[in-house]
Write a structure and sequence with these properties.
Elements: H1 6-15, H2 18-36, H3 45-49, H4 71-97, H5 101-113, H6 118-129, H7 136-157, H8 167-172, H9 189-219
Length: 223
């Protein structure tokens, strides 16, 4: 029997459960608000809600602000990219909502087989964080987060000219990384970097769940 294609599995995860559909609805409302009030702070809603992938558009030479004959093409390309980012984020939520029975059973066995108290707590923590390191998409993402954090710290401690270096780890760990804005301005940079690293680890766990669900869908041919 033919296997379900990757785009179809991704679309299914992004649309066949209520957390993913709720997220897509919120993104749709934010897009409508952006058109209604393009000069207000809510105009940044779609970009923030579809982070971190949507923030990659800042490195492109075109976007909504492009002027001239290519304005319509640039805005259309940016809109398609935003939609793809929203679908990926919705699929992540769908993967989290639809944990596979095999994964859940394996996690329960690992926890139950561990001795009580501290060892069992460590076993639960390893099980929780396993999706962040047991697949190549999550590992590649963690490598990107680590590189951005190293650049940020080197720019501040070695070059003594951080300029906009903090934007890279901030974008890499969004949307949770935006919580770094809530930290006091007097916080040590090492503390800020640690907070961003934790946000990146959380994103990697979610990405790992998505990779597991897509792999599980590929292992079960469509009927």
């Amino acid at each position: 029997m033919p296997q379900t294609s990757l785009p179809r599995r991704l679309l299914a995860l992004a649309t066949d459960n209520w957390p993913a559909r709720t997220y897509l609805t919120v993104v749709g409302v934010s897009v409508a608000a952006m058109f209604v009030a393009p000069e207000s702070p809510v105009a940044a809603g779609p970009l923030i809600l579809t982070a971190p992938l949507s923030l990659l558009s800042v490195v492109l030479p075109f976007g909504p602000g492009t002027e001239g004959p290519l304005q319509a093409l640039a805005f259309g390309s940016w809109t398609v990219w935003l939609l793809l980012c929203a679908l990926v984020n919705a699929a992540v939520l769908g993967a989290l909502a639809k944990r596979s029975p095999t994964t859940t059973t394996t996690a329960q066995k690992r926890t139950a087989s561990a001795p009580p108290t501290r060892t069992r707590t460590l076993a639960r923590l390893r099980t929780l964080l396993a999706p962040a390191v047991d697949n190549w998409p999550a590992r590649a993402y963690l490598a990107m987060v680590a590189a951005s954090l190293v650049f940020f710290l080197c720019a501040d401690y070695i070059l003594a000219d951080p300029t906009f270096a903090a934007l890279w780890p901030l974008m890499a760990t969004a949307p949770a990384g935006f919580l770094a804005f809530l930290l006091p301005t007097s916080s040590p940079l090492a503390f800020v970097a640690a907070a961003m690293a934790l946000c990146g680890l959380a994103n990697a766990v979610l990405l790992g769940h998505l990779a597991h669900r897509l792999r599980a869908g590929a292992a079960h041919p469509a009927t």
